[in-house]
Every structure is written in C-alpha cells, then in structure tokens.
C-alpha cells in the first residue's frame, strides 16, 4: 500500500487536552465549637456561695437557663447531682445540691422568672426534689417538635440554629462522683451557655409559623407535669417474651421486685446487680438452690453470687404460689385493648382507628407537627374505642372535644384533632360491614 494513502493517526484524532481533575465540591466552613464566654465558675457548695449566686441571679435580667445532671445508669435515684443556671448579667452558676438540705434561697430569686429548659420533663422531677419549681417555662426541645424540626436534641438544634457545635462526650458520666472533674463541669456549663439564645431563635420561629399560642399552652401544661407511676413495671423486663407460662412470669416478677428492693437500698441502678437477661434465664429454668442458680447459663452480674440467697428465695416463692396468685399473661388496664386486637373484638372501632390514623398522618404533614404531639396515641385510642353516643355532627364534635379535654388535650390540639376523630366515627359507622368469610357469596 502507498504510504501516501495511509491516514496519519494524528490527523484523524482531535488534539487531546491535558486531563483535568474532577471539580471539587466547595468545602463547608467548619462549625465553630461552643465555648464558655466567662470561663468555668467554681461549684457552689456552701451557704455563702449560694447567697452570692442568688444575689447575682437576682441582679440579672431576662429568662434563666436551667439544667440538671443525674447519675442515670449508676444510681437508683433520679436525684440531681449538679444544677446549672445562666442568666444575662449574672453569668453561669453551678450548684452542688448534695451539699444542701434544699435550695429554697435559689427558689426565692427564681419566682416570676421564665425558666428555659431542654426536655423539661426529664429535669423537672429532680429539680422539684431539691425545692426548685418553675412559675413559667420555655422548653426548647418541645418548641423544636412543634416547629417540625426532624432532630430536636440540644446539640443538633444548637448547631443548626446557632451555628455552633456543642460537645456531648460527658453526657453519660457518674455525676454522683465527688469531686467532679473539671472537663465534666465545663461540659455541664456549656449545656446552659447558649440555651437562652436558642430559646429566642425558636420563639421567633414559633411566632412566624403562627404556633406561639400552641407552644404557650404546651409550656403551661408542663408546669403541672409529674412523672407517671408505672403499673406492673416488672413487665418492662427486656426479653420477657421468652418466658413461658404464668409461673414463669411470677418468677420474673419476684426476681425483678427483689432486685429493685436491693437496688433502692444500695442506691445503684438495678441492672448493675443482675441484668434483665439473667432474670429471664432464671425464670426459664426455675432453679431452686444456690448451686443450680449460679450454674444456670446466662445468669451473671455483679450481684449474682453476692445476693444468690435472695434470688433463690424469690424463685422458691414464685414456685410455691397458688394458681390464682399468678400474674396474668397480659397486664390489666382500664384502657382499650391493644390495637392489633381491635379488628376481632370490634371491627367498627378498628375502622375508626384506621381512618383516624390515616387522617392524622396527613394533618401531621400539613402542619409540620409529629402525630404524637398533635394528640397522644392513648387519648386517640380511648376516644375511638368508646366514642360518645351522639351522631349528630355538631353534638358529636362537642362531646369529642369534652372527652379529649378531660383526658388532658390542650385547646389547640382539640381544635385540630377533634374534626378528624368526628369524621372517623361517622365514616366508620357509615361503611358497609365487611363480609363474613364463613358466609358463602351468592
């Protein structure tokens, strides 16, 4: 072949540009770490220090940020082992409540001020225990829920709304320890450092969203909050579903109760004696002597051997109970049955619940409030299981409003949810009955 007829590769291929690196996404600026503006204060441990702290808070202005640290996971009690406060013009105050019989002088200067807390229901019981009771409050976690923020932890809200990162590495420490290490105290002080600032941002968002009145009603309701009393708390034993028979349940109850008594006496969290898994293992095999108990696979824990006599005694008592003294498989309750049983026990009630749940999901999306904050599921189930007898729409609406209000719903909740429940009742009644599968179709 003639060389002149051979195409030149360089002539038929376009000139190649140097390889380029792929475009990089612009890096986000690092989030600023939240730090203490005024340094770390000394912990208040005596009357003179408390008097000075009270004078400083009284001279300050605006809301007071308040938080408390407990020793969950270490102690049986839920008492406060540190109380943190911050107010404009007063700075941050750290109080050791263990050093005082009560904090009455602090309560006196706090009367009439707005408390700013995050997840108030967690801290209010232990603050009341040391004599601190709010007359007005703002809950930043609850405000975040009402505004539809997908994550409402303090660190997340602080970062998203204030642009500062909050350290959380000491959240699960044993706050009953004395003396408290300085890094722990700094962590505790940071929890109230920006809390009032966060409150101001959330309050403005609530006003812009038209939800400030909803929040006011919720915060007022929190003033009367008390921790619920758990009935048959032993039924919350993890893994209890593996235990067969009512006598096995009696063993779980006996072991749980014994463990709770020892834990309360020693002021240690119950799981530090024996874990739930050990209770379940012993209830499954029912050993009746110390050696057999300690040889039971899965029975372990710091208090397994030390209190082995108490565990055996509990198991023997369960084994000797009369049949009529054994606990029922399902807990007794004054409320409606579990939703999964509704279709069999009352198909119309089941339709009511299904219709209401679907409508509440849509309402939740429209107003950007979680369904459980629109109205607690227990209130919804109680009203729909046994709804008012009225069926004229306006009369039914008044009756439903009265029912949910009596169960603790706030006015804003009833205004939104009562129409949903009324529609569910009327629509379920009007729906044709589902065909009986035993009846042949003509």
From TrEMBL:
Residue span, HRDC domain: 245-325
PANTHER family per the UniProt record, alphabetical: RIBONUCLEASE D
Recorded coiled-coil stretches: none
Can you name this protein?
Answer: Ribonuclease D
Compositionally biased residues, Basic and acidic residues: 10-27
Q: What is the species listed in this Swiss-Prot or TrEMBL entry?
A: Nocardioides lentus
What SMART domains does the record point to? 35EXOc, HRDC
Q: Which residues cross the membrane?
A: none
Where do Pro residues bias regions lie?
328-339
Ranges for region Disordered? 1-30, 322-342
Question: Span of the secretion signal?
Answer: none
Q: Which domain of life is it from?
A: Bacteria
Q: What would be one Pfam family of this protein? A: HRDC
């Amino acid at each position: 072949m003639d060389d002149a007829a051979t195409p030149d590769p360089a002539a038929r291929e376009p000139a190649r540009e140097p390889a380029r690196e792929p475009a990089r996404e612009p890096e986000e600026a690092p989030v600023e770490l939240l730090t203490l503006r005024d340094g770390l204060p000394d912990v208040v441990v005596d009357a003179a220090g408390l008097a000075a702290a009270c004078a400083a808070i009284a001279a300050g202005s605006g809301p007071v940020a308040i938080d408390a640290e407990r020793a969950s996971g270490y102690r049986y009690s839920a008492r406060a082992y540190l109380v943190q406060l911050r107010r404009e013009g007063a700075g941050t105050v750290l109080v050791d409540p263990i050093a005082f019989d009560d904090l009455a002088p602090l309560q006196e200067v706090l009367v009439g001020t707005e408390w700013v807390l995050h997840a108030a229901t967690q801290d209010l019981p232990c603050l009341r225990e040391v004599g601190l009771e709010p007359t007005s409050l703002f809950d930043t976690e609850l405000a975040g829920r009402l505004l539809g923020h997908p994550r409402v932890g303090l660190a997340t809200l602080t970062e998203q709304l204030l642009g500062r990162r909050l350290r959380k590495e000491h959240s699960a420490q044993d706050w009953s320890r004395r003396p408290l290490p300085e890094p722990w105290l700094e962590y505790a002080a940071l929890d109230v450092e920006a809390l009032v600032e966060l409150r101001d941002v959330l309050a403005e968002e609530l006003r812009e969203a038209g939800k400030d009145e909803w929040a006011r009603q919720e915060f007022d309701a929190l003033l009367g909050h008390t921790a619920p009393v758990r009935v048959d708390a032993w039924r919350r034993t993890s893994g209890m579903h593996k235990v067969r028979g009512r006598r096995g349940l009696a063993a779980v109850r006996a072991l749980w109760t014994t463990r709770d008594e020892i834990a309360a006496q020693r002021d240690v969290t119950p799981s530090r004696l024996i874990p739930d898994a050990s209770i379940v293992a012993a209830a499954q095999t029912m050993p009746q002597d110390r050696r057999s108990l300690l040889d039971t696979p899965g029975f372990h824990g710091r208090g397994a051997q030390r209190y082995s006599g108490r565990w055996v005694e509990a198991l023997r008592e369960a084994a000797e109970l009369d049949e009529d003294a054994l606990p029922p498989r399902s807990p007794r309750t004054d409320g409606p049955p579990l939703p999964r049983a509704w279709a069999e026990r009352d198909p119309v009630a089941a339709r009511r619940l299904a219709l209401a749940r679907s409508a509440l999901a849509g309402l939740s999306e429209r107003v950007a409030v979680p369904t459980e904050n629109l109205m607690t599921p227990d209130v919804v189930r109680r009203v729909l299981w046994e709804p008012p007898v009225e069926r004229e729409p306006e009369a039914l609406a008044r009756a439903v409003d009265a029912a949910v209000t009596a169960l603790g719903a706030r006015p804003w909740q009833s205004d939104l949810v009562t129409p949903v429940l009324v529609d569910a009742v009327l629509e379920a009644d009007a729906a044709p009955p589902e065909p009986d599968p035993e009846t042949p179709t003509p």
